[in-house]
Amino acid sequence: MTRKIELLAPGGDAEAIKAAIVAGANAVYCGLDMFNARNRAKNLSFDDLCGVLRLAHQHDCEVFLTLNVVILEHEMPALIKLLNKLVNTGLDGIIVQDLGVFNLVKKYFPTLDIHASTQLTTHNEGQIEFLSEIGASRLNLSRELNLTEVKMLTALAHEHDVLTEVFVHGSLCIAFSGQCYSSSVSVGNSGNRGRCSQACRDEYETTARGNNFPLNLKDNSAYFDLPELVDAGVDSLKIEGRIKGAHYVYTVVDSWRKQINKFVETGQLLADDSNLHKVFNRDFTNSFLTGNLTKDMFIDNPRDHSVEHAVTKSQAVSLVSIQQAKQGLYDEKIKIGDELADKIKDLSIEKQSLRFVFSGQVNEPLTLTLTINVISQASETDKSYTVKSKGLLVEAKQSTVDQAAIEKRFKGFNNAQYTIESFGFDDFGDNLSIAFKELALMKSQTAFLLNGSVDVVAPVDVPTLINYPKSQTATDGKPSMSILIADEKDLHLCDVTDADVYFKLPESFKKDCTKYIDLLLKNPRLIPWFPAVLIGKDYLEAVKILQQVKPKRIVSNNTGVAYKAFEMGIEWIAGPFLNTTNSYALLTLKEELNCAGAFISNEINRQQIKNIARPENFKLLYSIYHPILMMTSRQCFFQQTVGCKKPSIEDGCMLKCQKATTITNVKGVSFAIDKQKGGYPSIYNDEQFLNMDVVNDLSDLFDEFFIDLTNIGAGSKEEQDKAQLIQHFEHVIKGQGTAKLQLNKMIPVSTNAQYRQGL
Q1: Which residues make Cβ contacts (< 8 Å) with residue 684, sequence separation at least 6?
Q2: pLDDT on residue 737
Q3: For an engineered disulfide with 248, which of 279, 343, 370, 740 has Cβ 3.0 to 4.6 Å away?
Q4: Start-to-end C-alpha separation, the chain
Q5: CA angle, corner 74, sides to 70 and 80, nearest 5?
């Protein structure tokens, strides 16, 4: 086998990155102390990053920086400032979630390589094409995909010159990545901002199945699936764990490196994965990859399983033998830790020191001898360069170029990458002068040499965006209203309002069934609303709806469907689950994919919303009433709660199952678990989102306010009189205050906390 398989390791801090390097990682991914989705990791300063880059590149290891959170409008200047610094670091790639970053980088920082984060929930063909269109060079496929799906999507990605990554080891989220709002809703810490509080690991009141941690999955390990991943054409095997320490990273990366080497050299696998069990784990599963979604994926304990595994493996029964097994594990961990400490003791990310020596006399060029103290493993060497002025030094008639003037010009090299150790002028004459442009040219040449003989990219001033006014409507500039339904029995609502009526399509379709095609053709007023997750044949069936109905307009929460609409010239609106939070994201959608409008994220507050600049001829929408989705999963939430007779999820589960239950956390807060026919199992907050404040605050900004009239996520709540709800919301949007009182009575359990607190 000749194809290179990249082993991509996590680096939560400098020590973990060193551990990954000595263990044999081909690349590491790490974050700074801003704009990254692992705020609980120690992370790096910018100076640390520069040192890490130098160290990693000395060992033929690439470095990818995580900028994998949604970005707020007021953060754009800081992000642009950071990007201006990153373009001159030699960084090998940035990992991105926010669609706005794609626009910025493609326009102003084209030398930066963009990788699409797992937070972009990439799981169908259209999304591959979407990400290729907006500038991704590689993408992380959703952890929920099976090997057949991975193989098919990787082949398509390669047709578009895009690489694929697959997570092969580490923690598993039960929710689709990028589609989990549980932490944001429950405690105000958004996973889309790197502050996930891991509600899926929380303890809940004992369920009917006797479980206290009903959402807690085992950890992922595809250690023995390497041949299938290679056959699938996957380019990068990614290990999760940026909040784990160096000992964990070293052990896991070392184990995977040995497995890969064995397979490359012999075509065989190592049979022993015992070292993986000696560091933090929740036991292991590969069920997403195999597509065998059984109850065995769950474990009713979110804590470290390594001690229990050691005891079980030793078959210890007596207290003495159990203690011996535990001690043996501790001794082995100490041994591995000592081995790691010895291997990294000479690795340094300290800045390299510079010595500047200037010399020259009258009628000679000004000469700079630049010496870099190069630090590599277990050694230090000096590398010297000579830089000469093109012009000659002359005797000064007025101002002189003295030591202070030269030092002032060159002191800027005391920066994130270098420390100036000394300036020397022993052979520099007195009372000399040279044109300052000569000093500027010498400084530029020095910067070129210190930048690895690569031209330094000058800082970019990104122009201020124009905030275009919204189009005037028939309601004298006031926002219109739209509603969402999901059941044919609600079609009569079309007769009680002039509002746009969206029809929510399911996440799963019976193959070749024309039910929804017929419904939409029969009711042309209905605007198709596509869900966030559409995998495999369900995506293909969704595309058939576009092709056969040819609607004038759609709302899509799935970028794959959006891309197909773009190709077909169908007007499309970016739905709320694309979680749009800034102007540049709107520009990406409009300029790259001819998007006509977008819902602004319900995670952000009034101040964060009001500064967003509208592109020209672009609609802004906002949901003022909806059930609050916390998470959606490809796994089954009922297996560990009320139970299910089926040992694993079958194809028919999506189409037929419509169970509902609740779980209650130890604080006494209950959450509705809802499974609609044709939908994924989902968990909803006990409160409905109801935000009438935004109508007063930002009616001048929005073209449309939206209300969700589906019964999804309602749990045991009494079904509302929907016609009456429509009437009251229409009155609120028109500014009639008494309607608010009526709505508060009709919807007593509600919140707009996210609008108040924001991200």
Answers
A1: 627, 628, 629, 630, 671, 672, 673, 674, 712, 713, 715
A2: 76
A3: 279
A4: 48
A5: 75
CB 746 within 8 A of CB 728: yes
Q: Which two structure tokens, joined as six digits, stand for 645?
A: 């007779």
Q: How far apart are CA 171 and CA 140, in angstroms?
A: 15
Q: How far apart are CA 438 and CA 66, in angstroms?
A: 40
Task: Answer for the pair 484, 706: CB distance below 8 angstroms, yes or no.
Answer: yes
Residue 41 pLDDT grade (very low, low, confident, very high; cuts 50, 70, 90): low
Q: What is the pLDDT of residues 333-347, one digit of tens each?
A: 999 999 999 999 999
Grouping H, G, I as helix, E, B as strand and the rest as coil, residue 222 is: coil
Cα–Cα distance for residue pair 218/299, rounded to 1 Å: 6
Q: Determine the 3-state secondary structure of 145 from DSSP.
A: coil
Residue pair 65/95 in contact by the 8 Å Cβ criterion: yes
114-116 vs 526-530, strand pairing mode: unpaired
By CB neighbour count within 10 A (0-12 exposed, 13-18 middle, 19+ buried), where does 461 fall?
exposed
What was the pLDDT predicted at 506?
Answer: 95
Residue 37 has pLDDT above 70, yes or no: no
Give 160-216 pLDDT, tens digit per residue.
999 999 999 999 999 998 888 877 777 777 777 767 778 889 899 999 999 999 999
Residue given tokens 């030699």 in the structure block: 90
Alpha-carbon gap, residue 141 to 124, rounded angstroms: 9
Domains of the chain in sequence order: 6-172+217-344 (3.20.20.70), 352-450 (no CATH), 480-757 (3.20.20)
Taking a C-beta distance cutoff of 8 angstroms, is the pair 333, 11 a contact?
no
| Strand duo 750-751 + 379-392: pairing | unpaired
User: Tokens 């002191």 — which residue?
Assistant: 411
Q: What integer pLDDT is reported at residue 40 of this predicted model?
A: 62
Task: Give the dihedral sign, CA 537/543/544/545.
Answer: positive
Six token digits for residue 156: 């398509």
The H or E element that residue 93 is part of is: strand 93-96
User: Torsion angle, CA of 47/51/53/54, rounded to 10 degrees?
Assistant: 140
pLDDT of residue 714: 60
